[in-house]
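Trying the structure run again after the queue cleared.
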Amino acid sequence: MITYPPQPNFAFLFHVKGYARNVFRSDLAGLGNYGMDSIFEENQTHVRDWPASASSFQLHDDSPQTARVSAAQQLLFPASPGSLCDEIGLNWQAALRLQEEGWISFPLESTSQLDEAQEAELRFVGSLVLAGCDRNMLVLLLASLPRPYAYDLKRVYFDWNSRHWRLIPDPSEHPEAAFTDWVEVLVQMRDAGSLAGIVELAQDALARVRGR
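Done. Tokens:
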């Protein structure tokens, strides 16, 4: 059976093997700053130890600015800041502290309905906190991003090598690079069965092409 490459299934990806998880765990002592101790323990993100080369191919233009939600458009079913915090599991007092310290750009208590950019901002920053980031980690992660932090979580990841946010590559737009990375992942995993399966598929495909 061929092991297929993993698909991004978390709001943001950390381009590391295990570093992010270890850093987050080591910083748990400071999470009380946001009154989030129990929430962080329950919502710790588990980063699977896929080899670091997975999804490592770079886009010519991978600026996270293209993932920024800039238009203040009203949503069809707008949520309030409180209901969105409940949805994602973010403590309300922690959200207010994030606003007080400048991580959230709009007033939570006086905003009755979130527009598209505000929802993206609260989801983005809130998800970082829920993943285990205390104040110092937020400073590190967000230093390279312009405010407000209204970024689409499904389109960006943090590259620890460069300490910059990048667009998540779309394999459908870069099939050869994605395939090369996948093969390299299988090599690092020493998955001889999957590699042999790829060889068989390629040989069969060549035979059919040459037989025409």
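Residues 12-167 form one domain. Worth checking whether this holds up in the mutant runs.
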